[in-house]
Design brief:
- The chain has six helices and 14 strands.
- The chain has 282 residues and is an alpha+beta fold.
- It starts with a helix and ends in a 6-residue tail after the last helix.
- Keywords: Plasmid.
Length: 282
């Protein structure tokens, strides 16, 4: 038998059945059913408008040839396109990644705030003091869940007070000189414990709802304003500062109108490195 004629015949029968050609009155709905089982050649069951079923055995090459230019193949040839709407970004955002899941999307956004005054509250020693501290641009990296509108991770660092111009992806970062930010802190992200570089220790962070655009205001500034324990966090202070003790350190910054570049410890990271969670080897 001519294989070419068999292919053309099968294709013709499939096309006629699918388009309903030859139907008169109220006939049976024409159809083509493909049966594909392991270790067996495919079979095509072609039902015509009279309800007659014809079975044809074809190999995979014949099957693909018969389906060529069919509606199924045409759909498969179309490049899938999905438009994902990005929520409003925070002011100063520099880098953004989107992680899509069936339950919702997570956004990893990194950027920097503008240099500004911050009120730092220190508790301990049977007294509470407040310090108005001017800080350079604060670099941040936040992981925000679109479904819960909450953060699952937050990292903070400082840009140099001597930085000229706006922070960008290649801006060098320096360790947070105050309390509760660690070179590596473990967060539970998507049900797994993961170490996050320059991560903050802030137990109530996950209770805060916010839009992605509100990360600098509600997350960064919110963390800075959380009261610190002077007795418990002296280990977090900058080793380069010429002042011992938390309150004296903050008072010195107040008196001189800001923190000096020489008091800061390099992170061995740029803003892009912080975003991608990688530290240069010294």
């Amino acid at each position: 038998m001519d294989a070419g004629k068999l292919k053309r015949g099968l294709r013709t029968e499939m096309e006629l059945a699918l388009c309903g050609e030859g139907i008169s009155g109220e006939g049976v709905e024409p159809s083509v059913v493909l049966l594909i089982k392991p270790r067996r050649l495919p079979r095509a069951l072609v039902t015509d408008s009279r309800g007659v079923v014809t079975a044809k055995v074809v190999d995979y090459v014949d099957l693909l040839t018969a389906l060529d230019r069919s509606a199924v193949v045409t759909e498969l040839e179309k490049e899938p396109v999905r438009t994902l709407k990005i929520p409003g970004l925070p002011e100063g955002a520099v880098l953004l990644d989107v992680v899509e899941r069936p339950s919702g999307s997570s956004y990893v956004v990194s950027g920097a705030t503008r240099p500004s005054e911050h009120l730092v509250v220190v508790e301990g020693g049977k007294k509470t003091t407040t310090h108005e501290v001017r800080l350079p641009a604060i670099a941040y990296r936040a992981v925000w869940d679109s479904r819960t509108r909450r953060l699952s991770a937050l990292s903070l660092a400082l840009c140099s007070p001597d930085l000229q111009g706006e922070p960008n992806a290649e801006t060098e970062l320096f360790r947070w000189p105050f309390s509760n930010v660690y070179s590596a802190f473990t967060f539970n992200i998507d049900g797994a414990n993961r170490e996050v570089l320059e991560g903050v220790c802030w137990p109530t962070m996950r209770l805060l709802e916010m839009d992605l655009a509100e990360v600098p205001e509600k997350a960064v500034e919110g963390f800075v304003s959380v009261p610190n324990n002077a007795d418990g966090y002296t280990r977090d202070l900058s080793r380069n500062a010429p002042v011992a003790g938390y309150r004296p350190f903050l008072q010195r910054i107040e008196e001189r109108g800001g923190i000096l570049h020489d008091w800061l410890e390099p992170c061995a990271m740029t803003l892009k490195d912080l975003h991608e969670q990688r530290r240069r080897k010294s």
